[in-house]
């Protein structure tokens, strides 16, 4: 429930104007939240100049007042940070601190979601990583064999992936350090959501936090493919039926150093 402290409220009406669902009204010169259409987006908390708005549902101690020195990022610096981001597949044999993993999760947690659904959750895999690898390699190999046995002219271009998955599994079974799935990274973070858009948005912000923490990551589409319909993987991860793995972030300390950004295609933009 959203609440207004009438002793603090000065009746400025800023929260009324900024409430998208029109759930706030002025009563006797004070803001009153009806809590009928409210979906707890928090705009009223953020805009109030007197800290008069709070909620019983979330931890209000997380709220921070704006401070230019702590919050502002120069646009060119941000763009350079994004340009310098690289997909990393070479990792050091070094564990990631829990504090850093929690910051990565927080970057996802505070990402916007449609209608403030906040329907994104996370699975962090560290201790069971070897078990997960074995199941994923086996799953990819089985799917690869199925594909090879059922190739059509329309699916012929998938042949190289099928052969690759089978070979990856054979190499891993012969030597479990030959890991071409997670590349011996110390942690995997799975982003789950019923909304692919919400999960992808969270993942993008999480990737930026990974880089800011001096870590590296890549998104493993192979693992997402391996997990689809695989009951053993879902049971190991404790993922309920109906939950969907949107992304798989493989994370570790980079064992590679890049010296510059890279070029990209020109943007395709239509100005109307």
UniProtKB/TrEMBL annotation:
For this UniProt entry, which segments traverse the membrane? none
- Enumerate the spans annotated as 4Fe-4S ferredoxin-type domain: 1-28, 29-58
What keywords are assigned to this protein? Iron, Iron-sulfur, Metal-binding, Oxidoreductase
Q: Which CDD domains match?
A: nitroreductase_FeS-like
Q: Does the keyword Transferase apply?
A: no
User: Organism's domain of life?
Assistant: Bacteria
User: Its Gene Ontology molecular function terms?
Assistant: iron-sulfur cluster binding; metal ion binding; oxidoreductase activity
Q: Give the matching InterPro entries.
A: 4Fe4S_Fe-S-bd (IPR017896), 4Fe4S_Fe_S_CS (IPR017900), Nitroreductase (IPR029479), Nitroreductase-like (IPR000415)
Q: Which Pfam families does this chain map to?
A: Fer4_10 (PF13237), Nitroreductase (PF00881)
Which family does the record claim for this protein? Belongs to the nitroreductase family.
| Annotated PANTHER family | NAD(P)H NITROREDUCTASE YDGI-RELATED (PTHR43673), NADH DEHYDROGENASE_NAD(P)H NITROREDUCTASE XCC3605-RELATED (PTHR43673:SF10)
Its recorded name reads Ion-translocating oxidoreductase complex subunit B
Organism this protein belongs to = Clostridium fungisolvens
């Amino acid at each position: 429930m959203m609440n207004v402290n009438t002793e603090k409220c000065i009746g400025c009406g800023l929260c009324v104007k900024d409430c998208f669902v029109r759930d706030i009204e002025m009563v006797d010169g004070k803001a009153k939240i009806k809590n009928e259409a409210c979906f707890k987006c928090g705009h009223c908390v953020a805009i109030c100049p007197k800290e008069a708005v709070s909620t019983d549902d979330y931890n209000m101690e997380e709220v921070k007042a704006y401070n230019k020195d702590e919050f502002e990022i120069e646009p060119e610096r941000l763009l350079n940070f994004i340009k310098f981001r690289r997909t990393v597949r070479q990792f050091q044999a070094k564990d990631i601190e829990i504090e850093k993993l929690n910051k990565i999760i927080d970057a996802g947690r505070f990402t916007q979601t449609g209608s403030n659904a906040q329907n994104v959750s996370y699975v962090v895999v560290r201790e069971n990583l070897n078990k997960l690898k074995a199941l994923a390699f086996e799953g990819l190999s089985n799917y690869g064999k199925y594909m090879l046995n059922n190739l059509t002219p329309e699916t012929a271009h998938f042949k190289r992936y099928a052969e690759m998955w089978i070979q990856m599994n054979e190499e891993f079974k012969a030597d479990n350090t030959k890991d071409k799935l997670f590349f011996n990274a110390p942690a995997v973070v799975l982003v789950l959501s019923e909304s692919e858009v919400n999960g992808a948005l969270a993942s993008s912000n999480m990737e930026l936090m990974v880089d800011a923490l001096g870590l590296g990551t890549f998104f493993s589409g192979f693992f997402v493919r391996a997990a689809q319909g695989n009951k053993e993987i879902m049971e190991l991860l404790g993922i309920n039926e109906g939950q969907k793995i949107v992304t798989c972030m493989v994370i570790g300390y980079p064992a590679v150093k890049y010296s510059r950004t890279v070029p990209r295609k020109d943007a395709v933009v239509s100005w109307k």
